[in-house]
Known about the structure:
- This protein is α/β, with parallel strands linked by helices.
- The chain has one domain.
- It has helices spanning about 15, 20-25, 30-35, 60; strands at about 5-10, 40-50, 65-70.
- Strands 2-1-3 form a three-stranded parallel sheet, with helices on one face.
- The N and C termini lie far apart (about 30 Å).
Amino acid sequence: MTIRVTVWGENVHEQKNKVVAEVYPKTMHGTIAEFLNKEEGITASAVTLQDPEHGMTTAKLAETDVLIWWGHAAHGDVDD
């Protein structure tokens, strides 16, 4: 059985801070998803605040077993 992981990230620091963008050229959430995909039995994908419905559509939630949510600077920008 494959564990389906969705890694959610604000994607704010990568866009506003050149140092963060240099350290995480694939974004923080993309780097985490890429690492998880190296593990047998895990399929990971990354979504962001800027995606439609902040990446968490009903369909995406239905295909997610584990949600990793990282937020720091834009909590107020997340719709209910």
